[in-house]
Write a structure and sequence with these properties.
The chain is of the alpha/beta class. It folds into 2 domains: 193 residues, 3-Layer(aba) Sandwich (Rossmann fold), CATH 3.40.50.410; 72 residues, no CATH class. The protein has 6 helices and 10 strands; from the N terminus they run βαββααβββββαβαβα. A 6-stranded mixed sheet has the order 3-2-1-4-9-10, with helices on both faces. A hairpin with a 5-residue loop joins strand 7 and strand 8. Helix 1 runs antiparallel to helix 2, helix 1 packs parallel to helix 6 and helix 3 packs parallel to helix 4. The two termini are 15 Å apart.
Length: 277
């Protein structure tokens, strides 16, 4: 009997996925991926998670018998939010305040699913088209030595921690608290990791400065749980492509696309890799 394998497809549904038919083609090729792997006699199950500002479980794990239901959940077209329009079904592109990119949220939800799985092989296939613009609030960190707090009620109402930084690492995040504005990779000072100061207030450090750092933290948690990460960078720009490459388990576990029309090549590559690995 084939080795039990569980896969979570993690799909970006930020606003930019409406550009150049990105979402419609992603859905089309994701369903081909499902059709190629969920064949009679296989021991593979696939779940689907999407992410924007937060994450959404589109479908729990389904095998061959649930293939059509899974494909229906993925759907068709480029529908946006409540304005799906004719021919658009399933996953909807986000708009407004929810439309940014929280890759960490997608990885976190996929990790939850796979940590509760009894499969021998576990993998995430994550597709993104840009850099992260949201992440979770960092609540634990090492490598920070607090020295003093800069504060003036009139000139500087925010308590700012003056610290020595060395070998910084995140140790905990609050998964109920999303930080970011959705339009930048930078994290505002008052959303960085904080330390209680002599004034009895939260004094804010400068860590992490950007959303890629919590994203890498989450990717390492995934890998340490014995879960493989494969990534598809869909015309993701220089930063986005580099981040998605770094998230993946190895150089062979990432696929960068410069043209939306080539997305099928990436899904075919990973279907082959998963089927014969």
């Amino acid at each position: 009997m084939p080795t039990p394998t569980d896969i979570v497809l993690v799909i970006d549904r930020s606003a930019s996925m409406a550009d150049n038919n990105r979402m419609a083609l992603t859905k089309q090729e994701a369903k081909t991926f499902v059709d190629n792997l969920l064949v009679e006699g296989s021991n593979i199950r696939i779940a689907v998670v999407t992410f924007g500002k937060t994450n959404t479980l589109v479908s729990d794990f389904r095998g061959f018998d649930g293939k059509q239901a899974l494909m229906n959940a993925i759907g068709t077209g480029n529908g946006i939010g409540g304005f799906m329009g004719t021919g658009n079904t399933g996953i909807a592109i986000l708009s407004g305040d929810e439309a940014g990119t929280n890759i960490q949220a997608g990885l976190y939800r996929a990790r939850q699913l796979l940590e509760s799985s009894n499969a021998t092989n576990k993998a995430i296939l994550l597709l993104g088209d840009g850099e992260p613009t949201f992440s979770y609030q960092v609540t634990g960190a090492t490598g920070i030595t607090f020295e003093s707090c800069s504060y003036s009620f009139l000139q500087q109402p925010l308590h700012q921690a003056n610290c020595i930084y060395d070998d910084l690492l995140i140790t905990a995040c609050d998964y109920s608290s999303v930080v970011g504005e959705g339009n930048s990779m930078s994290i505002a000072r008052n959303k960085c990791y904080s330390i209680e100061c002599d004034h009895g207030a939260n004094s804010y450090t400068t860590f992490p400065a950007t959303h890629d750092i919590p994203t890498y933290y989450e990717a390492e948690l995934v890998k340490s749980s014995g879960i493989d990460i494969y990534t598809i960078a869909l015309v993701a720009g220089v930063n986005g492509t580099d981040i998605l490459k770094n998230i993946a388990g190895s150089p062979a576990d990432t696929y960068s696309l410069n043209a939306v029309e080539d997305i099928g090549k990436a899904f075919d590559y990973f279907a082959f890799l998963i089927k014969y690995s």
